[in-house]
Write a structure and sequence with these properties.
By secondary structure, the chain is of the alpha+beta class. 36% of the residues lie in helices and 41% in strands. The protein has 2 helices and 4 strands; from the N terminus they run ββααββ.
Length: 104
């Protein structure tokens, strides 16, 4: 499966636009991570516990988007985007979406 943030695929021609492919995940903070993050916030800088949490959530959302595209018979996803929104205090949704296409 080819996934790109561009509208076209160099070297490939889009034969058919299938529609939207999407995948999402909602992740909540974990108490153990919050303790370490709280200590780090005192001195400032990056909070690697949350960086890792969000990176894992993005990968999971992209994997789910790819699965959704495959279910629709797509060969590729173009114009892929990621968005994040807070669901409630301490949890966020990561949404990966794009246009599922069939290639010639």
């Amino acid at each position: 499966m080819i996934v790109t943030m561009t509208d076209t695929l160099p070297g490939h021609e889009i034969a058919h636009i299938i529609g939207t492919a999407r995948g999402n995940v909602v992740r909540a903070r974990f108490f153990g991570r919050d303790i370490m993050a709280g200590l780090r916030s005192i001195v400032g800088g990056e909070v690697p516990e949350y960086t890792k949490l969000m990176a894992e959530a993005r990968e999971q959302a992209i994997d789910r988007m790819i699965s959704h595209a495959r279910l629709q018979g797509a060969d590729a996803v173009v114009s892929m985007r990621l968005t994040t929104s807070m669901i409630m205090s301490g949890s966020a949704e990561i949404l990966a979406y794009g246009t599922a296409v069939r290639l010639k």
